[in-house]
Design a protein that fits this description.
The protein is an alpha/beta fold. It has 18 helices and 15 strands. It has a seven-stranded mixed β-sheet, with helices on both faces. A six-stranded parallel β-sheet has the order 8-11-12-13-14-15. Strands 9-10 form a two-stranded antiparallel ribbon. Strand 12, helix 11 and strand 13 form a beta-alpha-beta unit. The chain is globular, with a radius of gyration of 23 Å. The relative contact order is 0.09.
Length: about 475
């Protein structure tokens, strides 16, 4: 098979091996988080019972192009499934696909993850890709593999892109999500060394690493009913919150306790507290097992003082909340998030008082936001008595309301994206991209590192020495926070 073949579903194809992989996201100098490839583990669990699978993660060891080429040259496979985690790494993903195609001209390349889900029309132009999978791939990928084996057309399959008889890409939109998450198998990381990931504390990224090793990274639910202007969650995991049962969740936890001796659970749900009773049951189970835990996405409007105490008593040591703005009008009219600013500050104070670390996310640079409103958000963030504030720049992700507004008003050239949440893309009469990057980088530095005690605490949170913190600050100021590999 090669890219000149007009129809890749015209004949049966035996599947001798499936490789599941992701790029090295640091290929062009950006920071690579080197966290456990959670999606690859789930996909592997969906197919490894009947197929020979091999997981390959050049991201973890930051392998160079020569090493990547050697791997694919010496590991032939009928199908190579490539995961993509963010549109921020477009250049890295495209380069990786090109390398794979050059080294494996006869393999079928399937691209899944964020890129085809948010930009299917762009993926259609990538000549190295034979198929793409949109949305949740746990059941789509096995069904697609079966179609390839049988030589059948995927034209009736939901969320799949393919080449037609003329070699042109066609695709069916992602129309639905998995209702019963208990049917999704527990991740199986196959040939990967799980403990190499779980025992590694990632620097500069508290959201992706545990403090007590080895740790488990997992999701107990998917979806979020909020429709924040900048968020693509509704496209990736849907507006309906779908939840695993506590019993199903603890099946995974107990397996990883027995197999790897995990000490901490890192919960990465979009909305863990959506069902309060279920969340409390999960907390009680974690406490009974002697595990500590933290959550990287806590909806502050779902919190109260009683629940914070329950969380702390169950072993929660850190939460990340997203207040987003210190301006009520921005929250209500632009972001559309039910945040009470006074109550949010009171809850942050309570969490700190009882011993839970608090990290808070803010976003600046929205259309119709004035410079004085940006300064108001910064003053609000400064007055929070918390451990760390993250200041992001409003990023118009594909197919979000923010992107649509920007294009309609001419604030962004069509197809233009920033290189991440620390880079400006939107410009208005109130601010330029450069101004946003300057104020973000320098206010982040001023607020977070105002005392030696705060510096020590952030060093603990980010797994750094004090000397590394000071280098991080300097690097951020001098680069205006632009993505770079400083690990």
């Amino acid at each position: 098979m090669n890219n000149q073949m007009p129809n890749i579903v015209s004949r049966r194809r035996p599947i001798n091996r499936v490789i599941l992989t992701q790029p090295n996201y640091s290929l062009f100098g950006k920071r690579s988080w080197r966290m456990i490839p959670y999606t690859l583990g789930i996909l592997n669990a969906c197919i490894c019972d009947r197929l020979d699978t091999l997981l390959y993660d050049p991201n973890f060891k930051e392998e160079d192009e020569t090493s990547i080429r050697n791997f694919f040259r010496h590991h032939p496979a009928a199908i190579i499934g490539v995961s993509s985690i963010s549109t921020e790494y477009m250049e890295e993903i495209l380069s990786y696909l090109k390398i794979i195609r050059e080294e494996t001209p006869d393999s079928i390349i399937v691209l899944g993850g964020i890129l085809p889900t948010l930009q299917p029309e762009k993926v259609s132009d990538i000549k190295e890709v034979d198929y793409f999978v949109m949305g949740e791939g746990e059941f789509r990928m096995p069904t697609l593999i079966e179609a390839i084996e049988e030589g059948a057309s995927p034209e009736d399959m939901d969320g799949i892109g393919w080449r037609d008889g003329d070699g042109n890409f066609q695709y069916n939109d992602n129309k639905g999500f998995i209702d019963n998450l208990d049917e999704v198998p527990i991740p199986d990381y196959g040939n990967l060394d799980y403990l190499a990931y779980a025992n590694r504390r990632i620097k500069y990224n508290h959201a992706s690493t545990g403090r007590h090793t080895p740790y488990l990274t997992t999701m107990t639910s998917r979806g979020c009913p909020m429709q924040c202007i900048f968020c693509s969650s509704r496209l990736i995991s849907g507006l309906k919150v779908r939840m695993r049962s506590p019993e199903n969740f603890f099946e995974e936890v107990d397996l990883y306790r027995e197999r790897y001796g995990i000490k901490e659970v890192l919960i990465i749900d979009d909305h863990f507290l959506y069902d309060r009773d279920r969340a409390i049951k999960i907390m009680a189970g974690l406490k009974a097992r002697g595990l500590i835990w933290k959550c990287t996405n806590v909806a502050i409007f779902s919190l109260d003082e009683e629940l914070l105490q329950v969380m702390y008593d169950s072993g929660c040591y850190q939460i990340t909340v997203s207040i987003e703005s210190g301006v009520p009008e921005i929250l209500k009219k632009i972001i559309k998030k039910p945040i009470d600013l006074k109550r949010s500050k009171d809850l942050c104070d309570k969490a700190i008082e009882i011993g839970i670390e608090v990290i808070c996310n803010f976003v600046i640079g929205f259309p119709d936001e004035t410079w004085e409103q940006i300064r108001t958000t910064i003053r609000y963030a400064e007055n929070l008595n918390i451990d760390l504030i993250n200041m992001h720049i409003a990023t118009p992700l594909p197919r979000t309301r923010l992107m649509n507004v920007c294009l309609e008003r001419g604030l962004l050239r069509e197809g233009e994206l920033s290189s991440g949440y620390c880079s400006g893309a939107i410009e208005t009469k109130e601010f330029s991209k450069n101004e946003l990057q300057i104020v973000r980088a320098f206010e982040w530095d001023r607020i977070n590192f105002s005392t030696s005690e705060k510096i020590d605490k952030i060093a603990l949170i980010e797994n750094l020495t004090v000397e590394e913190v000071q280098e991080w600050r300097k690097s951020t100021r001098r680069s205006l926070g632009q993505p770079q590999n400083i690990d």
